[in-house]
Design goal:
The complex is a heterohexamer, with two copies of chain A (102 residues), two copies of chain B (135 residues) and two copies of chain C (130 residues).
Chain A: E1 3-7, H1 16-23, E2 29-32, H2 47-53, E3 58-62, H3 63-68, E4 81-83, H4 85-94, E5 97-101
Parallel strand pairs in A: 1-2, 1-5, 2-3, 3-4
Chain B: E1 6-11, H1 20-31, E2 37-42, H2 66-69, E3 79-82, H3 83-88, E4 100-103, E5 109-112, E6 114-117, H4 119-126, E7 131-134
Parallel strand pairs in B: 1-2, 1-7, 2-3, 3-6
Antiparallel strand pairs in B: 4-5
Chain C: E1 2-7, H1 16-29, E2 33-39, H2 60-71, E3 74-78, H3 79-84, H4 90-96, E4 107-110, H5 113-121, E5 124-128
Parallel strand pairs in C: 1-2, 1-5, 2-3, 3-4
Helix pairs in contact in C: 1-2
The chains are: A alpha/beta (102), B alpha/beta (135), C alpha/beta (130).
Chain lengths: 102, 135, 130, 130, 102, 135
């Protein structure tokens, strides 16, 4: 029993990512989409928080959204995986529920 | 439709500045007719939805806070409020309006619907649902 | 697997309706079922047939209408949310004494019960919003 | 003093159109001039005459139409923002080959130049948005 | 020459208040409206930040918005003044420009 | 309309997730015809509008980032970018696309339009305007 959490807001604009990470459980997955993908950047004010959680939670970014925003793969935190829309669908199917942190 | 699912309505936004709180409540009221296992979560700015003493005369928007008190009549009796969210906002349970229901399994005794839980407990509640609707 | 989808924000202003569209297309292409998409909050505005986006931009309403036609997705617009925001079909326009309607082909107006029913009848529910 | 006002968000969903309304009413009552209000982004949706709010709620469009009528406020809806979002007057509907329009009395559709002009010609500019 | 800044977002939801306070100058005024009025609450995670700034900047809340949200006057930080819509109009008139922190 | 006013367009939001960045740019382009004294401020998530290498094929939304490079042709030549906002986001000037203009007062020499300023300088720029439009 595990949850897919989606975050679509920049962690520099709203508290959604922080609240999501504070509520997800070991074995859950977090998928950053839309402006949420900025949460995957290395060297930012929230990078430590994300990196810390990446041990117990699988963290993904939607590649279409990182590409749109000019975020090259080598700018992302280590251990964060890119997925396409098909991968998004698989993540939804593979977890028992999806919770959107709007 | 005989299957009973656990529905969680997650409220993370303040009332009046945006319509999400009101339109969340409208779903809860309609959803009550479907006899599912319903819980409401109030965390982050969602805890502001339950403050007492709301008076919207000055802004010209309908005050919908009394509706929370009617939820018991719809058998919606589990309103989970996160302690840490209250703390960060300088609020205590005393700042929230009382919401109660009559427990049919306990001789219709009046009981509080608002249950203050820790962040860890809230995470457990979220992880125990079939359907999570976010507002 | 059966997916239910909720769209909570209006077209062009937020990316929600775009992301949901790509998600639903992928889900169907991968063999899943998406019996219904529910439009709530400003999401109801996606259904406007009066939208005229610039010619070099995607047409969000037409994308959804095509998806409904090609794959039988039931596009439900919440009646309460739609009324506030001025989204009406012909029946509603007549009932409310309005002189025009604006709901596009492939969308239908109905109640919030359709959202709950979708939650009950699908295996997964995904919300795209703000 | 002359005030220009920008409204950037849609009705009911965000409080912006309500706050702006109370602000403009107060400004006029206090003897200031509000020659124009400019509706941009989702703010264009305020102009819909098809809106049917619940009977116990305020009618945001009608409030603005009344203000325009009583005090000569020029309510300008940005044409580019309006087209994307499906807000059309009769002329635009005809020009775009659409079978209906939805702009209410008291609002007029025009270009972004009207926003800049308002910034130049007023003493203060206040934006209400999200 | 001074500026009226308006903030309409909760400081617990977005970074608008923090960014506003970091950019306003001595002698400016900040008016909290709509969900922004939560920034005026005492005893919160942002109260110190606001209180600190209240020495050099005049801070106001729109009373119609605090009342709507059930925030009694005695729950607000010391030195924060309530104004009605007429007071909002006066603040706009009395400052050289208005900047909205959306 | 002979008076020249100082107009500042304040950009605090990221592109694509919401439309504000694009619709801000549309105002700037139209506004250029009015021959006012125009500046653009990029701070908070607004700095993300200027990242290089944007490719929107995957999301199906038009890539409008090339338009910033055309601003010089409209005599919009002052794009102020806040250093602290870049720092918090792990960005440097190198991560932004080059935006230049030809300076007619200096023998049409090509000069950078993007000027990185400190937060304190940004506050000074904001305090020096007649009209501030926020996006």
């Amino acid at each position: 029993m595990s949850t897919l959490h989606t975050v679509n807001k920049s962690p520099f604009a709203t508290g959604s990512l922080e609240s999501c990470l504070a509520h997800c459980k070991d074995g859950d997955a977090v998928l950053m989409i839309e402006d949420g993908v900025y949460g995957g950047l290395a060297g930012t004010a929230v990078a430590d928080l994300v990196q810390q959680k990446a041990g117990s939670v699988a963290i993904y970014v939607l590649s279409a959204d990182t590409q749109a925003r000019g975020l090259a793969a080598d700018k992302l935190l280590q251990g964060i995986k890119g997925v396409d829309y098909d991968g998004f669908v698989d993540l939804v199917a593979d977890h028992d529920r999806t919770q959107s942190w709007l | 439709m005989s299957e009973i699912k656990k529905f969680l309505y997650v409220n993370r936004k303040a009332p009046y500045g945006t319509i999400y709180a009101l339109e969340s409540l409208e779903v809860v009221l309609i959803g009550a007719a479907f006899e599912q296992d319903v819980s409401l979560a109030f965390l982050d700015d969602g805890v502001f939805q339950l403050t007492k003493g709301q008076n919207t005369d000055g802004i010209g928007i309908k005050n919908f806070s009394p509706t929370y008190r009617a939820l018991g009549d719809y058998e919606v009796t589990k309103l989970y409020v996160e302690q840490e969210s209250l703390d960060e906002r300088g609020l205590t349970l005393d700042d929230l309006q009382a919401v109660v229901y009559e427990d049919e399994d306990d001789d219709w005794e009046e009981k509080p619907s608002i249950r203050v839980v820790s962040r860890a407990e809230m995470a457990d509640i979220m992880a125990d649902q079939d359907v999570v609707l976010s507002f | 697997m059966k997916f239910g989808v909720v769209i909570s924000e209006g077209p062009y202003t937020h990316q929600a309706a775009d992301t949901a569209y790509h998600f639903v297309k992928s889900a169907i292409a991968k063999g899943h079922e998406v019996p219904r998409v529910f439009f709530y909050h400003d999401g109801v505005n996606v259904a406007s047939r009066l939208s005229v986006p610039p010619q070099d931009e995607r047409n969000i309403q037409q994308n959804w209408t095509a998806l409904a036609k090609d794959h039988g997705v039931d596009l439900v617009v919440c009646i309460a949310a739609a009324q506030r925001r001025g989204m009406l079909d012909d029946n509603e326009a007549k009932r409310q004494g309005k002189d025009a309607s604006n709901i596009a082909e492939g969308f239908r107006i109905s109640g919030l019960g359709q959202l709950i029913e979708m939650g009950i009848q699908t295996d997964r529910l995904v919300t795209f919003g703000d």
